[in-house]
Predict the structure.
Amino acid sequence: MHLVSSSTGSNPPLARIDSIEQFINLWLKDKSPNTQRAYRKDIQYFLVFLGNKPLEQIILNDVHAYLDAMEEQGWAESTINRRLAVVKSFLTFGNSIGMLRLNVGKAVRLKDMPKQFSQRTLTESQVLMMIAMTPNSRDRALLRFMYAVGCRVSELCSLRWQDITENPDGTATVHIFGKGRKNRWVKFSSETWNELKSLRGDARGDDHLFTSRQGGGLKPNQVRNIVKAAGQRVNAPATSPHWLRHSHAGHSVQRKVPLTLLQETLGHESLNTTRNYIAANPNDSSAMHLPV
């Protein structure tokens, strides 16, 4: 794989890039570690497919050929869509800094995918039973907190005691540094806060909120194992941490929480993402409020 030329037109590029790896590093610089790992893996499939073709010579046919190859190999539509989205991001970035004259990824449309949120949402009773049936106090508080604030597993693992502030009314507010390097503040109940406080002991402000038996903060895989074990207790063995986030959203919609408030709580960049949970929970509609 060859790099692009040093200039793609009359204007010089915004950055000096001497290798594909440097190009990728610059593209991923402001993304979270999890996103960097996922994007780096997915873009390698595209680069290997291109072979020795220089990036500046990529045309729409190449991207379509990549799509056809993935379909022929039997990749799931969700995987194909994800990898195409990564390619579009990669090419858009190259064009934005002047390294690629054309952004051929702009002309590539992702496939419409059926929303599956409802298949990854627990009932309220299942969530409450998961919490109640978990014998370990740390794990029980973790489940309750994740469901209460709707955080991602990566966000949970990075939280420290100093990120939580107790409010005058006994509730608490957690400062979450989330996806896209964006800050958000989520207020949660005094009951959940009291359960968390019971775990603190002599932990300092810069200690992790949830720690392992060996010391140090819990890792994402450890959290996944905790959530999966809890799901098995309520006959939902496929449960993952993100199911708790989906459940927070779905149950909030059912309880008529304003979508803009839910968007702020979950840290969705677009309100359209939050609206997906309306389709996933079709228990109400304007038709139910008409006199017929």
